[in-house]
Design the sequence.
């Protein structure tokens, strides 16, 4: 009789243990359902794209307003501040240009005069000087002077006092990673504008129809980004075909620069602010294990946008989407405080659009030793698709398995992954800054595009986002991070 009672007692205890364990294991999943919603994600995005923030340009007072909004969310949820002097903000300086209107771009050839349409034919420069400039248009190819590869678009032309027309890429179009890497430095707008300025040009027409706040500022230097149809029209006057000339340059790796019969007048309406301040927003959720809490999982996204060019650049996909998913995951993770062994750091970066300034500042001035970061997960443009992606995850199979298991068990979306590869172009996202500094990094993204992507354009609005898949991305981010932090 006693034996039976003991067996019954053991059976009851085992049943209670199993029920308790099952309840504990299902708690994060329940939190993800209760706390992460597409409606709230959409609401945050609609706030971030409000005109009052003027496109969230780093350095502006309006950026600091949206940064304070994010910090207030962290504070309201109970996330620990981890910036400078006990605040949420890690500050750094950032000069910026206030573009008050779109100005104008007028082409003249013979008796023909054409005033370009802002937002359709051209985007005003983000960092030009203020005023007006006139000059002859000189085609300077890719705008590159590269003596180590015996290539110089400026070799046989004089651009002093003139306006150069250049492309936004490099002549090499092959897939050889070693060859690509040699052109990396020459692929940035910052280099191309500096090279034009140093050759004496008064300004630039760059055939790259998008906003580019990372370009340099030079006194008495003007520029605009133009549609390739504008370049074609200039070439037609010379009885040349734009596409054929570019193809010939790439095939022969030899410049075809020339002076055109077209003149251009660029008028700008800007105010330069040399003293500006911006910040990363940093929060921290401490783990409960005396040793493992020193291992930190970082999740991040850039909060800044492309600003305003006389018209608003809302930056919904790039990158209000990534920020909103990080906020959703952070809100759920703080509910698990005291239940995770490892710590979690949340970073909203400033100045990504201006040259990855926020992430570069962080890795040079880390709030924790970089070697303590177990994994960095970066979210950039995570808001348009039906499938999920963990780019770089295959380089860390043990870490990736947490996201794969959670997706299989709870999310049930296609999850694509890849291995990290050596960077052959200039880094374009904050995650690569961490990766290049030895930190294991996964880039969260989406596959199965649903809507057009308006990269650095005024059409990047919230109505082009896929909120149900964003909700699942945020849930997977939360569940995967919780699983790694709790192991």
Sequence:
């Amino acid at each position: 009789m006693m034996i039976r009672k003991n067996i019954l007692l053991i059976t009851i205890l085992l049943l209670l243990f199993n029920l308790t364990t099952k309840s504990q294991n299902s708690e994060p999943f329940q939190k993800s359902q209760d706390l992460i919603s597409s409606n709230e994600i959409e609401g945050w995005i609609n706030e971030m794209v409000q005109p009052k923030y003027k496109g969230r340009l780093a350095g502006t007072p309006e950026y600091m307003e949206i940064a304070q909004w994010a910090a207030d969310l962290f504070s309201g949820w109970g996330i620990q501040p981890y910036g400078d002097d006990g605040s949420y903000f890690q500050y750094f300086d950032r000069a910026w240009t206030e573009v008050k209107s779109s100005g104008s771009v007028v082409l003249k050839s013979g008796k023909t005069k054409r005033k370009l349409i802002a937002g359709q034919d051209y985007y005003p420069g983000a960092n030009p000087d203020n005023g007006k400039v006139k000059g002859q248009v000189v085609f300077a190819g890719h705008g590159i002077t590269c003596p180590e590869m015996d290539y110089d678009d400026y070799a046989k032309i004089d651009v002093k006092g003139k306006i150069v027309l250049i492309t936004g890429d490099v002549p090499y179009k092959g897939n050889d990673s070693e060859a690509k890497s040699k052109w990396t430095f020459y692929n940035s707008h910052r280099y191309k504008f500096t090279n034009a300025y140093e050759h004496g040009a008064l300004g630039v027409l760059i055939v790259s129809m998008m906003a580019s706040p990372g370009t340099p500022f030079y006194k008495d230097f003007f520029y605009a980004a133009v549609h390739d149809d504008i370049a074609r029209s200039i070439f037609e006057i010379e009885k040349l075909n734009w596409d054929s000339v570019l193809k010939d340059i790439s095939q022969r790796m030899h410049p075809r620069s020339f002076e055109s019969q077209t003149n251009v007048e660029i008028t700008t309406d800007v105010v330069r602010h040399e003293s500006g301040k911006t910040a990363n927003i940093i929060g921290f959720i401490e783990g409960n294990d005396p040793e493992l809490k020193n291992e930190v999982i970082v999740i991040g996204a850039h909060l800044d946008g492309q600003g305003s060019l006389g018209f608003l650049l809302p930056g919904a996909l790039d990158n209000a989407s990534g920020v909103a998913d990080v906020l959703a995951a952070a809100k759920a993770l703080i509910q698990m405080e005291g239940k995770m062994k490892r710590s979690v750091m949340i970073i909203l970066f400033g100045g990504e659009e201006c040259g990855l300034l926020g992430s570069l500042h962080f890795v040079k001035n880390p709030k924790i030793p970089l070697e303590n970061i177990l994994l960095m997960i970066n979210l950039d443009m995570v808001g348009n698709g039906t499938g999920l992606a963990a780019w770089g995850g295959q380089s860390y199979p043990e870490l990736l398995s947490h996201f794969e298991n959670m997706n299989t068990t709870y999310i049930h979306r296609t999850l694509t992954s890849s291995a990290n590869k050596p960077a052959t172009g200039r880094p374009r996202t904050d995650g690569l800054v961490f990766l290049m500094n030895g930190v294991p990094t996964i880039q969260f993204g989406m596959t199965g595009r649903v809507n057009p992507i308006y990269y650095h354009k005024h059409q990047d609005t919230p109505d082009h986002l896929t909120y149900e898949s964003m909700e699942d991305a945020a849930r997977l981010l939360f569940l995967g991070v919780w699983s790694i932090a709790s192991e």
